[in-house]
Amino acid sequence: MAHWKKRETLFAEYGARLTLPGHWQLRPSDEPDRWFYRSADRREQVTIAHSELSVGNGEDAAIRRAVARHRKAVELGFDRAHDLIMTEPDFGQRDALVTAFYFGTANEERHRFWALLLFPERTVWSFFYETFNLSEVEAVERAEAVLGTVTFREGR
User: Fold this and answer.
1) Cα–Cα distance for residue pair 89/146, rounded to 1 Å
2) Domain extent listing, the chain
3) Are 95 and 152 contacting, i.e. CB atoms less than 8 angstroms apart?
């Protein structure tokens, strides 16, 4: 008897696209622009969020404020972790969009996370990938495999 195994899970909303390897479950969210996915083995999860970017004093300043707010929210989310370590954000480009990227660890490196933020059309997309109890090598390989699939197409 053959067993069918799901090879990937696709997220595609408002021009953003992410392909998750294997079977992932979409978890409920109270917010319409936030999606939570958890891997079948519960050792990985991704939070995807979309919001407006308040430009005010210029786009560059708005992007830096959005990244600072995101990092602060991560810090607050790890308030009980005495050993939280995060890198400074690295700014770059992907699909002709400004990006910000940072990563970190907590709980004696059992919890690892990566954040990729994209800034299309006065909005911010956040892809926050987490691993639990994976070796550093395995966690990095999986993070690269997941976040490497993020794309964005304007006007969709």
Assistant:
1) 19
2) 34-152
3) yes
Which CATH class, in words, describes the domain spanning 34-152? Answer: alpha beta
**Reduced DSSP (H G I as helix, E B as strand, rest coil) percent helix, strand, coil of the chain, to 5:** 20, 45, 35
54-86 burial, b if ≥16 CB within 10 A, otherwise e?
A: eeeeeeeebbeebbeebbeebeeebeeeeebeb
The pair of three-digit structure tokens given for residue 94, joined into one six-digit string: 């992907």
User: CA 15, CA 23: separation in Å to the nearest integer?
Assistant: 22
The 10s digit of each residue's pLDDT in 48-86 is 999 998 877 678 889 999 999 999 999 888 887 779 999
Catalogue the E-assigned strands of the chain. Answer: 8-13, 16-21, 24-27, 34-39, 44-52, 85-86, 90-94, 97-106, 111-119, 123-132, 151-152
Over residues 23-40, the pLDDT tens digits come to 899 998 898 899 999 999
* Stated pTM of the model: 0.90
Say what the pLDDT of residue 104 is. 95
Strand boundaries in 31-72, DSSP class E? 34-39, 44-52
Check residues 125 and 4 and name the one with the higher pLDDT: 125
Residue type present at position 54: S
